[in-house]
C-alpha cells in the first residue's frame, strides 16, 4: 500500500456520544478528525464484512475511493446530518475548486463565476447569503467584488470560494442540521473548511509538490498552477507549511440585453403629455412625436426626428407596435411590445493571480493535550477587461436623443409580444470598455487547544482573528459613440434565443465613432467614468470560545460552552473632484485610431451574429493621453461627500447540550443531542448622508449617521439517530435557526429623501435576522462497506424574507437624523413612502434528497474497480414578495432550483484512477421585479460535465489530467416567466489541466 495519510484510532472511552459533534465542528485540532486526507472512524458493523481495524500505529489510505469511504464513515458516526469531502492524497483535493467538489453533495448547487470556476453554493435552495463558512473552526468571510460579467459583487457575509486554492485544505464538511454547540448564522448550512496539521500524518517528514498547466479553448493560453506542502514532526512538536500559486488568463464571450422592457418604458417618459409615443412617429401618423414644439431645440420637425435624423419609419411597423397592449396596461398603446434595452455583445478577459499559504504549529506533549496555532493567507489579484458593442438608443430617453428619436422601418413580434425582428434608423451605437482591478486578501490566525483532565472531563477552546480585505484599486469605464446610425438590425428569427445584431456601419473603423464633450442639446459623444473607485471594504472578525464536556455516565455527557465574537465591516469609496469627471476633447494631433484597439474573435467563439471585430478605447493609451490618474484627484473624506461606513456586530452566546447513546439499554439504540443556545447581538451601524455644499471640492459633503440596536435569540435544537439495524439508520432533527442580513442594507444612509413629496429611498439598519424553524428526517442504509442508499426530507418554516420594497413609515423610524427636514414643511412624525430593504412575510420551504454511493467491488474482474455516486434533490418554496407596482407575488425563493442532480462514475485500481461527473442545476429566480411588464429575472437550467484522471508511475510520482465543462455548456439568464426573453448568455469553453505530483 502506498504511503500517504495517517488515520489514528479513535479515543472513545472518554468522548462518548459527544465525539460525533466534535468531528464535524473541527474547532478542535485533530482529535475527532485527525487525517488530513481520508479519515476513518471506528470500524462499523454492517451486514457485509467490516473494514479492517486500525492498529495502534494507524493505517494508511489514499485515492478517491478511500476518501469517499472515510467521508461516509464520518457521516455515519455523526448525530447531525452532514456530508464530508476529504483529500484523496496529500495536498490533493478531489477537485481543483472547493465549490466544485461540493456539487457532488446532495442538496448543494453550484454558482459559477469567471471562466466557469465555482464561486459560491446554494444548499437546499438557500443561497450563499444563508450559508456560513468556518475556516479551522472560525467564521470566515471572503470578498471578490464585481468579479464576473454579471456585475455581481460580494462585500458582505457571503463566501466566494474562488478566493482560495483547494490545495491548502484537507477536508470540508457541509452541516445541514445544527446542534446547540454550533454557533448561529445559517439557514442553509454551515460549511467547515479544515487545513492539515503536522500530526495528521504517520510519517515524521512529509513532502508533496504538484505542478500543473491549465489550458482554456477560448483564451488559448497555458497557465501555471503549483502547490507545495511540507510537514515535519520533532517528537511532540510538529510544523506544517503549504504554498499554492495559480495564474489564469480567462476569456468569456456572450450577449447581453441588460433589460427587456415595454416600448413605453424603454426610454423613460418618451414624450410629453398625451402626445407621448414610444418611437419617432413616421410621416402620416399623428400626433407627431417627438413634438416639433417641445423638442425644437433637438431639431424635431414634421420631417425630422432630431437634427439630421429624418423620419424614415414605416406606418405599418409603427402601428404594429402600438397595437400591442399588455394585460397590466390595456389602455396604453405599445405596452405589449417588448425590446431589449441595450442589445450588445460582450467580450470579457481576465488576468488573475491567486497566492495562498498556511502554517501550523502543533504541540502534543501527551495523549491528553493538543495545542496548535494555525495561520492562513490568501491573495486574489484580478484585472479584468470587459468590452461591449451596443445599440444604446433603446435605453436612452428624449433628453439624450434616445428611443423617441428612433425610426422603425420594419418590425415583427411573437405571440407574447417579444421582439422577433426589427430594422431601425437613428440608433446611437456605443463601444464601451470597462477595466477593473481589485485585490482580495484573506488573513487568519487562530489558537486551538484541548485538554483531557480525566476520562470524564475535557475542555477545548479557540481564539482567532481574521481579516477579509477587498481593495478596489480602479474601475475605469471608457466609451465612444456613433450617433443616429441607420439600418440597425435586431434579428431573432429562425428560433434564435440570442439575436444577430447588424449595426449598419463598420464598427471596426474608429473614425465612425466620436469622443468629445456633450453637445448643447444633451447628445453624448463618448466619455469616461471611474464608477466610485478606488474603494475599500474590510471585514475583521474576532472569536473566543470555551467548551467543556463532562461524561456523567456511559453513553451520557453534558457539554456547555460560551462564545464571544465581533464582526466589523467597514466600506469606503472615493469621489472624483468636481469638474474632473467631464469629458475633454482629444489633444491636438490625437485621433481615435491612435487610442483604440480591436476586439476580435467574438463571432467565431460565440457566433450568433456578433461582429468580427469592433474598435474600442485602449485603456492604457487613454490613461497616457489624459494623464490618468496622476492629473486626477480623488477624495475619501466626508468633505467630498464620501466616508467610511461601518457595521459592527458584537455577539455573546452560551449553550448547554446533552449527548446520549442508549445502545446498552434500549432494543433500538438511539443516540443524539439535545440543547439550546442563547445569543445576544449588539449592532452599531454608521453611514453617511450626502448634502449639497458649494465649498466642497465635489459639490457635496457627507454627514455621519449612527444607529445602535440589540436583539436576542433562543435557539433550541435536537438531533436523533435511530439504529434500527447495524446497517440501517434513521435520523430526526429539529431546530430554530437564524441568519443575519447582509452588511450593505444595514448601513444607515439614504440614496435620496424628498421632503416636499415625502418619499425616497434608504437603507434599513433595523432589519431583523431571517429566522426559521427546521425539521429534517432521513433514512440511511449502509448495505456494504463504502456504500450507501439514503433518502431525506426537510422542511423549513421561514418566518420572514428580506427584499427591497416601498413602505409607509414615519420619518423618525428610518434611522435618519431629523435635521434632514430642516427648512421643509415636514416634521419627524410625518409618514413617508420609502423604498428600502424590508422584512417581508416568508413562507415554507420543503424538499426531498435521494443519495446513492455504491462501490461495485462485488463484481468480477475489472468491474470491481468501478463505483457510482448519484444524488437528486427536489425543493419547493412559497414566498410572498412585495411588488414595485403594489400588491404581492407568490413564487419560489430567490436562488432556489426546484431540481438539482449530480452523478459520478469512477474507476480506480492500484495505479490508475478516472472519474467523470455530470451536475445539473434547474432554472431558478435571480430577482423579483413585478413591474415594467416583467415578473422576475431567472437563470435557465444547465448541466456541466467534468472529468479527472491520474496515473501512478511510481509510489512517489503521479500524472494528473483534468477537464472541466466537457460539453461546452453555456450559462443563460432570462426575464419574465411567460416570455422568457434572453437577458444574458455567455460561453466559457472547455478547460484542460495536466500536471504531475511528487511526494514522499
Distance between the termini: 13 Å
Low-confidence stretches: 1-61, 268-275
Strand content: over 45%
Using only C-alpha atoms, the radius of gyration works out to 30 Å
Main β sheet profile: 22 strands, antiparallel, barrel
Number of helices: 7
Indicate the mean pLDDT.
86
Q: Give the overall form.
A: globular
Could you tell me the number of beta strands?
52
Which bin fits the share of residues in helices? under 10%
The computed structural class is mainly beta
General description of the model:
By secondary structure, this protein is mostly beta strands. Helices cover 5% and strands 52% of the residues. The strands form ten sheets. It has a 22-stranded antiparallel beta barrel. A five-stranded mixed sheet has the order 3-8-9-6-7. It is globular and about 95 Å long. The model is unreliable at 1-61 and 268-275 (pLDDT under 50).
Structure characteristics:
single chain, 1000 residues, mainly beta, 22-stranded antiparallel beta barrel, five-stranded mixed β-sheet, 52 strands, 5% helix, globular, disordered N terminus
Quick structural overview:
The chain is mainly β. It has 7 helices and 52 strands. The protein starts with a strand and ends with a strand.
How does the SSE layout of this entry go?
Layout: E1 5-7, H1 12-15, H2 18-25, E2 59-61, H3 63-77, E3 82-86, H4 98-102, E4 108-112, E5 118-123, E6 131-135, E7 138-140, E8 171-175, E9 189-194, E10 205-216, E11 222-234, E12 237-256, E13 260-262, E14 304-306, E15 309-310, H5 315-323, E16 338-340, E17 344-366, E18 369-391, E19 407-413, E20 419-425, E21 427-452, E22 457-485, E23 488-491, E24 500-502, E25 527-529, E26 535-553, E27 556-573, E28 575-576, E29 596-600, H6 602-605, E30 613-617, H7 619-626, E31 634-635, E32 644-661, E33 670-692, E34 700-725, E35 728-739, E36 750-754, E37 759-762, E38 770-781, E39 788-810, E40 831-855, E41 866-877, E42 879-882, E43 888-891, E44 899-908, E45 912-921, E46 924-931, E47 934-939, E48 942-952, E49 957-964, E50 970-975, E51 981-987, E52 991-999
Amino acid at each position: 500500500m502506498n504511503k500517504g495519510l495517517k488515520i489514528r484510532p479513535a479515543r472513545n472511552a472518554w468522548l462518548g456520544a459527544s465525539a460525533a459533534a466534535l468531528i464535524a465542528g473541527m474547532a478542535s485540532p485533530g482529535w475527532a478528525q485527525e487525517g488530513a486526507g481520508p479519515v476513518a472512524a471506528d470500524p462499523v458493523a454492517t451486514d457485509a464484512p467490516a473494514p479492517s481495524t486500525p492498529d495502534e500505529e494507524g493505517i494508511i489510505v489514499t485515492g478517491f475511493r478511500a476518501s469517499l469511504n472515510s467521508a461516509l464513515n464520518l457521516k455515519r458516526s455523526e448525530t447531525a446530518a452532514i456530508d464530508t469531502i476529504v483529500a484523496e492524497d496529500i495536498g490533493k483535493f478531489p477537485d481543483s475548486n472547493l465549490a466544485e467538489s461540493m456539487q457532488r453533495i446532495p442538496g448543494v448547487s453550484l454558482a459559477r463565476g469567471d471562466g466557469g470556476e465555482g464561486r459560491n453554493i446554494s444548499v437546499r435552495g438557500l443561497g450563499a447569503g444563508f450559508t456560513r463558512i468556518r475556516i479551522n473552526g472560525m467564521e470566515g468571510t471572503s470578498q471578490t467584488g464585481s468579479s464576473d460579467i454579471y456585475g455581481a459583487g460580494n462585500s458582505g457575509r457571503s463566501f466566494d470560494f474562488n478566493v482560495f486554492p483547494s490545495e491548502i485544505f484537507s477536508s470540508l464538511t457541509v452541516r445541514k442540521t445544527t446542534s446547540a454547540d454550533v454557533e448561529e448564522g445559517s439557514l442553509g448550512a454551515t460549511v467547515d473548511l479544515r487545513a492539515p496539521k503536522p500530526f495528521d500524518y504517520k510519517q515524521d517528514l512529509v513532502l508533496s509538490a504538484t505542478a500543473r498547466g491549465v489550458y482554456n479553448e477560448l483564451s488559448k493560453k497555458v497557465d501555471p498552477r503549483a502547490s507545495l506542502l511540507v510537514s515535519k514532526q520533532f517528537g511532540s512538536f510538529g510544523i506544517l507549511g503549504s504554498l499554492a500559486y495559480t495564474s489564469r488568463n480567462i476569456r468569456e464571450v456572450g450577449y447581453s440585453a441588460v433589460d427587456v422592457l415595454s416600448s413605453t418604458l424603454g426610454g423613460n417618459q418618451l414624450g410629453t403629455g398625451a402626445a407621448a409615443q414610444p418611437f419617432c412617429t413616421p410621416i402620416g401618423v399623428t400626433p407627431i412625436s417627438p413634438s416639433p414644439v417641445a423638442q425644437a431645440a433637438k431639431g424635431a420637425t414634421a420631417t425630422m426626428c432630431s437634427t439630421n435624423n429624418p423620419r424614415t419609419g414605416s406606418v405599418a411597423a409603427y402601428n404594429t407596435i402600438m397595437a400591442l397592449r399588455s394585460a397590466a396596461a390595456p389602455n396604453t398603446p405599445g405596452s405589449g411590445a417588448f425590446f431589449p434595452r441595450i442589445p450588445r455583445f460582450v467580450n470579457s478577459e481576465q488576468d488573475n493571480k491567486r497566492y495562498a499559504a498556511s502554517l501550523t504549529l502543533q504541540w502534543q506533549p501527551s495523549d491528553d493535550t493538543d495545542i496548535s496555532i494555525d495561520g492562513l493567507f490568501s491573495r486574489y489579484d484580478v484585472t479584468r477587461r470587459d468590452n461591449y458593442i451596443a445599440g444604446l438608443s433603446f435605453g436612452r430617453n428624449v433628453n439624450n436623443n434616445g428611443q423617441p428619436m428612433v425610426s422603425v422601418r420594419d418590425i415583427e413580434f411573437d405571440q407574447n409580444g417579444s421582439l422577433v425582428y426589427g430594422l431601425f434608423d437613428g440608433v446611437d451605437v456605443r463601444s464601451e470598455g470597462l477595466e477593473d482591478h481589485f485585490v482580495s486578501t484573506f488573513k487568519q490566525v487562530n489558537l486551538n487547544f484541548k485538554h483531557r483532565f480525566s476520562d470524564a472531563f475535557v475542555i477545548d477552546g479557540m481564539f482567532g482573528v481574521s481579516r477579509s480585505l477587498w481593495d478596489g484599486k480602479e474601475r475605469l469605464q471608457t466609451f465612444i459613440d456613433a450617433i443616429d446610425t441607420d439600418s440597425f438590425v435586431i434579428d431573432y428569427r429562425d428560433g434564435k434565443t440570442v439575436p444577430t445584431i447588424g449595426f449598419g456601419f463598420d464598427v471596426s473603423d474608429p473614425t465612425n465613432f466620436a469622443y468629445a464633450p456633450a453637445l448643447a442639446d444633451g447628445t453624448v459623444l463618448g466619455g469616461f467614468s471611474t464608477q466610485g473607485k478606488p474603494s475599500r471594504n474590510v471585514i475583521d472578525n474576532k472569536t473566543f470560545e470555551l467548551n467543556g464536556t463532562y461524561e456523567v455516565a456511559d453513553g451520557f455527557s453534558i457539554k456547555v460552552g460560551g462564545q464571544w465574537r465581533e464582526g466589523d465591516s467597514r466600506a469606503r469609496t472615493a469621489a472624483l473632484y468636481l469638474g474632473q469627471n467631464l469629458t475633454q476633447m482629444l489633444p491636438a494631433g490625437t485621433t481615435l485610431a491612435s487610442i483604440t484597439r480591436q476586439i476580435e474573435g467574438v463571432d467565431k467563439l460565440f457566433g450568433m451574429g456578433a461582429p468580427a471585430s469592433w474598435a474600442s478605447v485602449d485603456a492604457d493609451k487613454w490613461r497616457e493621453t489624459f494623464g490618468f490618474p496622476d492629473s486626477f484627484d480623488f477624495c475619501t473624506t466626508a468633505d467630498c461627500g464620501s466616508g467610511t461606513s461601518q457595521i459592527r456586530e458584537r455577539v455573546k452566546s452560551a449553550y448547554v447540550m446533552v449527548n446520549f447513546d442508549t445502545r446498552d439499554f434500549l432494543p433500538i439504540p438511539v443516540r443524539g443531542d439535545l440543547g439550546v443556545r442563547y445569543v445576544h447581538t449588539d449592532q452599531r451601524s454608521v453611514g453617511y448622508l450626502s448634502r449639497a455644499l458649494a465649498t466642497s471640492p465635489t459639490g457635496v459633503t457627507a454627514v455621519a449617521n449612527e444607529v445602535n440596536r440589540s436583539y436576542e435569540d433562543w435557539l433550541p435544537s435536537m438531533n436523533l439517530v435511530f439504529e434500527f439495524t447495524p446497517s440501517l439508520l434513521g435520523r430526526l432533527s429539529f431546530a430554530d435557526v437564524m441568519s443575519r442580513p447582509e452588511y450593505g442594507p444595514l448601513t444607515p444612509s439614504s440614496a435620496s429623501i424628498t421632503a416636499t413629496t415625502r418619499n425616497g429611498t434608504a437603507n434599513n439598519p433595523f432589519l431583523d435576522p431571517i429566522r426559521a424553524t427546521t425539521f429534517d428526517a432521513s433514512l440511511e442504509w449502509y448495505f456494504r462497506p463504502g456504500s450507501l442508499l439514503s433518502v431525506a426530507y426537510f422542511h423549513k418554516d421561514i418566518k420572514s424574507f428580506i427584499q427591497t420594497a416601498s413602505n409607509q413609515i414615519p420619518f423618525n423610524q428610518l434611522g435618519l437624523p431629523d435635521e434632514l427636514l430642516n427648512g421643509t414643511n415636514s416634521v419627524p412624525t410625518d409618514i413617508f413612502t420609502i423604498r428600502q430593504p424590508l422584512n417581508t412575510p416568508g413562507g415554507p420551504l420543503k424538499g426531498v434528497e435521494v443519495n446513492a454511493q455504491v462501490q461495485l467491488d462485488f463484481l468480477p474482474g475489472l468491474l470491481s474497480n468501478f463505483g457510482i455516486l448519484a444524488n437528486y434533490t427536489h425543493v419547493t418554496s412559497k414566498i410572498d414578495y412585495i411588488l414595485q407596482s403594489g400588491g404581492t407575488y407568490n413564487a419560489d425563493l430567490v436562488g432556489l432550483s426546484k431540481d438539482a442532480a449530480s452523478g459520478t462514475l469512477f474507476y480506480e485500481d492500484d495505479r490508475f484512477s478516472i472519474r467523470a461527473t455530470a451536475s445539473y442545476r434547474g432554472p431558478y429566480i435571480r430577482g423579483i421585479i413585478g413591474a415594467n411588464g416583467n415578473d422576475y429575472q431567472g437563470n435557465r437550467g444547465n448541466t456541466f460535465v467534468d472529468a479527472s484522471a491520474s496515473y501512478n508511475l511510481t509510489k512517489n510520482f503521479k500524472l494528473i489530467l483534468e477537464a472541466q465543462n466537457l460539453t461546452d455548456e453555456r450559462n443563460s439568464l432570462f426575464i419574465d416567466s411567460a416570455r422568457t426573453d434572453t437577458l444574458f448568455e455567455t460561453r466559457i469553453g472547455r478547460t484542460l489541466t495536466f500536471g504531475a505530483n511528487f511526494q514522499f
